[in-house]
Amino acid sequence: MSSNARAGRPSRLTRNLSAKIASVPMMLTAVVIFLGGTVWTVVYSFTSSKLLPRLKFVGLDQYERLWSTPRWLVSIENLAIYGIFSLVFSLVIGFVLAALMDQKIRFENTFRTIFLYPFALSFIVTGLVWQWLLNPEHGIQSAVRAMGWAGFDFDPLYNSSIVIYGILIAALWQGTGLVMCLMLAGLRGIDEDIWKASRVDGIPMWKTYLFVVIPMMRPVFVTTLVIIASGIVRVYDLVVAQTSGGPGIASEVPAKYVYDYMFQAQNLGQGFAASTMMLITVAIIIVPWAYLEFGGGRKRV
Amino acid sequence: MSDRGHLKKTNLAATAPASITTAGPMTGLADGPRGAKPRRMLSTRTVIVYGTLFVAAAYYLLPLYVMIVTSLKGMPEIRLGNIFAPPLEVTFEPWVKAWSSACTGLNCDGLSRGFWNSVLITVPSTVVSIAIASVNGYALSNWRFKGADAFFTILVVGAFIPYQVMIYPIVIILREIGLYGSLYGLIIVHTIFGMPILTLLFRNYFAGLPEELFKAARVDGAGFWGIYFKIMVPMSLPIFVVAMILQVTGIWNDFLMGVVFTRPEYYPMTVQLNNIVNSVQGVKEYNVNMAATILTGAVPLLVYFVSGRLFVRGIAAGAVKG
Lengths: 301, 322
What we know:
The complex is a heterodimer. By secondary structure, chain A is an all-alpha fold. Helix content of chain A is about 70%, strand content about 0%. Chain A contains 15 helices and no strands. In chain B, helix 6 runs antiparallel to helix 14 (about 270-275) and helix 12 (about 235-255) packs antiparallel against helix 15.
């Protein structure tokens, strides 16, 4: 290292050379995998690839077939239900928990540890635990019935009309701790004077939260929203572990559709088309956000 | 995220005599009149706050409790008894069976194989991904070159692209270089997908270090690697720990990459666990399944409980990426 320094002021080229060489993995990843891979998949989604990728273009055939496949429609419907409920519930539960945690409570660290530990667990573990808890013969349903409420029905995993809510319960258990943490960080960033001012003005606490604090936390909410949303589109392991898409195809999700068509049904074209649809879904969420955060919204800060 | 030193409400001072002393140092400037009036109102509120928190805590703890209890029961007791009841007879047999003789298909050597596979995957993946990403972050924050930010932008945007979109091209690339199905291939994959968030993490951290240090080292003739190893790394140990926590839990918990990029003999623990529990043949042994589930969750849980605050910091950093 001293050798190139001794040559007086190192020229721009040599000085940057080490950095450039060291950044080669990053450049390769960015260009070849992230950019190249995405473009490749999108291009091949217009081909009739079956077992192997072939550049035989068939226009929008794969997409037409995709949108006429019942399994894909069920997947999309599930994703929509799961997505909306998980957004709403995790924001509400996460915020309420954070607000409670922010009341200068005792044992704050203990509570935080309890709320957040499921987040350390994998979706597979989460799915399997809830599969067991929701087991109709041995799980919560039978425990409640044994307590004397014989008509109690709670078997979401075996009822195709509500199975997605069974998955939602598990997902909320796993993920709300994270939302709570983000919200708590946001609440801690609110200036003390705001609270003092609203107290002086005699505004009730809930009103202060609703009309002062939450609007002030807009950036935190937006970030959290983006995080939850991009997690929702990816949901895969949880479904595989909890229901394997069943009963029947009642709990299928797009990510599982992609995997199954690419690696099991040997129908690559369908897999590519479905993954492109996932990409579009993410883009619909991300692009407006990125625009607001880094584009036009910059001036307001 | 500091908990202390904010005088949001005057509630603490009124809850109990003990907390008056706790709140003592802080009360100086805020509350003037201290009387009986707030007391009753606040105590109702305290009940609501703590009540809700305890109910929520019970909900979060319940699955863990059920897992442990179930794994310690024998099968007859599970069939007859209540899922929430503590075991009448504690048995560790399910644990032994889950670890050493549970079956996936024809293999009956238990989860231990998956465990060691996961170790073999997680350790090198963590080391390699952190090594590469920290150098990236360092180059991006201290040795900016033309176009570097463009690559970085692609990387960060790429973090949002669903994995499913990029999986197949990676399969092809790995097949071309002969690493598809091997542990090395999986290590590369984890390095790739860990790169956006880790690079961001390191870039932001290094950018926060005083620039004078870097300049002084430059004046003293240190080069790219010299500054990295002698100044940046020793000064950034906390962020390396955060990155390690992030990667160890993330890679250990991964399922999709393990399924796609490895052969069955290298399946990580999560994949093997899923195969054991969701296998269709044989009688379902719920106690063994739960023992296996706890075993799989044990490593990230341990990391979580040991690291505490740093874990929170890691996910907060991860959160920036999404």
